[in-house]
Design brief:
3 copies of one chain form a homotrimer. With about 170 residues, chain A is an alpha/beta fold. Chain A has one domain: P-loop containing nucleotide triphosphate hydrolases (Rossmann fold). Chain A is built from 6 helices and 7 strands, in the order βαβαβαβααβαββ. In chain A, a hairpin with a 2-residue loop joins β6 and β7. The longest helix of chain A is centred in the C-terminal third of the chain and has 20 residues. The two termini of chain A are about 15 Å apart. The interface between A and B is medium-sized, with 22 and 27 residues. Chains A, B, C: It catalyses: adenosylcob(III)inamide + GTP = adenosylcob(III)inamide phosphate + GDP + H(+); adenosylcob(III)inamide + ATP = adenosylcob(III)inamide phosphate + ADP + H(+); adenosylcob(III)inamide phosphate + GTP + H(+) = adenosylcob(III)inamide-GDP + diphosphate. Chains A, B, C: InterPro entries: CobU/CobP (IPR003203), P-loop_NTPase (IPR027417). Chains A, B, C: It comes from Ancylobacter mangrovi.
Chain lengths: ~170, ~170, ~170
């Protein structure tokens, strides 16, 4: 139906803003979580995010097969995908062909019938990272963000908790 | 009276723009400096910033107790706080409870009667830092920026010396 | 004639957008490349960029003496400079006085008679880098970007392949 893409840095209020956008629509809402708790720091972040959400939210875990999860959604239920950065991390660590999978995911997001709000990180505005894996991740994230932004009806860039309209 | 929040990256012209905003108001102006010269590089930056300011500026150092400094200000004198990133660095290195202190500082900024321009860095738009302290700082800075932006009447994001209006 | 400055992060679609801006004008177009292939990763990026361009493009390499290359241009031919970040890297690694050269380059860009589109990276929105050279580069890049943005008629900040108008 409509695809809103919420981009921003760490602690920029992306998730909160995306949740508010979904909650403007009629419940129930589906939350597609891509987080995998690799360590205690991650587990804490996941718990914090979950504790913030009300009971009208139905959570679905899709740390790897996000495109399939999207394909199985009912058309009338608003969906939040949080977030593409964790999905990309999971796929890269699993040794996947992230270029091909990113293109497939962008297509799946564009084809989805449900009202969608998708969260992702902008990670390319610092100095070039020292290690090659970080550089590869930065490139892959930037390309994925461009592909999703192209499909999106609305693109929002978060600055200090405030939305800046980039598209739509 | 009014709170303007000027956010941006390193060398984005934040301080200069913030000074110009204050200098549009009637002097004398108060400059609250949060810098502590931990090394020669910092000392040089502080000296450079000071040398740029005219004599209508009265400088007040508050590298740690910024909330108290704000509480003691006269209501009719424009104030520049430069910057929250150095304050947060100082407090974190001192082992403070930065979450609690950030909330208290945001409240103090919101309650301040003087016309205020506050400078801070956006630090969350690069790749996830390798070390845990840098990640903690990045999170704390992002949360502080969100809290101050919420209180602010006007929020400006600097890009290459140019202001982008985010709020107000 | 007119100077457009396209700023953005890694993989933000800067080069593609800048090329599209130039290709709206009548050909032939001049592409001033500042890349030096220090390693295989760079060589691959350069080849990728070149393969994207049509034959109406005439390429000119100026990894170091960019100001001289600009001075020798005909006034009626649109020019793309891609990018200032690689130029700055080359000059810094060569031990140049980058502050002086940045000022001279900004002046040369401002004085150029040809319609110009100039690409550069924003690198200051992450956490402070660990090593001193990266910090010096970040500062030099920020200052150069400010100088060019001041001369520019139009400044564009790219987010996920989408242009945000900052000036003009």
């Amino acid at each position: 139906m409509s695809l809103t893409f919420v981009l921003g840095g760490a602690r920029s209020g992306k998730s909160r803003h995306a949740e508010e956008l979904v909650e403007r629509l009629a419940p129930p809402w589906t939350y597609i979580a891509t987080a995998e708790a690799h360590d205690a720091e991650m587990a804490e972040r996941i718990a914090l995010h979950r504790s913030r959400r009300a009971e009208d939210w139905h959570t679905l875990d899709a740390p790897h097969d996000l495109a399939t999860a999207l394909a199985g959604l009912p058309a009338d239920r608003p969906v939040l995908v949080d977030c593409l950065t964790l999905w990309l991390t999971n796929r890269m660590l699993a040794g996947a062909d992230v270029a091909a999978e990113s293109a497939a995911l962008a297509a799946a997001l564009g084809a989805c019938k449900a009202p969608l709000v998708v969260v992702s990180n902008e990670v390319g505005l610092g100095i070039v990272p020292d290690n090659a894996l970080a550089r590869r991740f930065r490139d892959a994230q930037g390309r994925l963000n461009q592909m999703v932004a192209e499909k999106a009806d609305r693109v929002i860039f978060m600055v200090a908790g405030l939305p800046m309209r980039v598209k739509g």
